[in-house]
Amino acid sequence: MSLDGEYAPSPSQWVRDQVALYESSGGQKGNTLADTGLPVVIVTTRGNKTGKIRKTPLMRVEYDGDYLLVASKGGAPKHPVWYYNLQADPSNVEVQDGPDRFPVTVRELDGAERATWWQRAVAAFPPYAEYQEKTQRRIPIFLATREG
């Protein structure tokens, strides 16, 4: 499966630039968050309002072949836009990790499974704990599992 259709780059210049560099280099460049050195993946979704292809760099939280997608938005009071794209179409998502691009199915986590994965998220990117403290909302997390 491949997400086809018109690509609508992010309104954020840094996101557009990072996605372009990541994809044009096969994941060899633009594969870390700013100057942190921490790895990112590119998540491709279909816009829930426009139907256009959207691409978002997210922190790489991988365990045993599954990926966690953390809708932190830096601890902002509202969910990031891509959160709604995942909710609307959880079986039409792709992840690119370095040179590997593959379809995934996502589901939002809750309960003990969420707690386990949240610990993994904070271990991979410690600021997630601070983001949760500074917002009233519970930061949603999605498990992305490779299809087939």
Report on this model:
This protein is α+β, with helices and mostly antiparallel strands. It has a single domain (13-146), classed as Pnp Oxidase, Chain A, CATH 2.30.110.10. The protein has 4 helices and 7 strands, in the order H-E-E-E-E-H-E-E-H-H-E. The protein has helices spanning 13-24, 81-88, 111-124, 127-134, and strands spanning 40-46, 53-59, 62-63, 66-70, 93-97, 100-108, 141-146. It has a 7-stranded antiparallel beta sheet with strand order 2-1-5-6-7-4-3, with helices on both faces. The longest helix is centred in the C-terminal third of the chain and has 14 residues, at 111-124. It is globular. The mean pLDDT is 95.
Quick recap:
With 148 residues, this protein is an alpha+beta fold. 28% of the residues lie in helices and 28% in strands.
Structural class: alpha+beta
In CATH terms, the superfamily is Electron Transport, Fmn-binding Protein, Chain A
List the helices and strands in order: HEEEEHEEHHE
* Rounded average pLDDT: 95
Low-confidence stretches: none
Topology:
Elements: H1 13-24, E1 40-46, E2 53-59, E3 62-63, E4 66-70, H2 81-88, E5 93-97, E6 100-108, H3 111-124, H4 127-134, E7 141-146
Antiparallel strand pairs: 1-2, 1-5, 3-4, 4-7, 5-6, 6-7
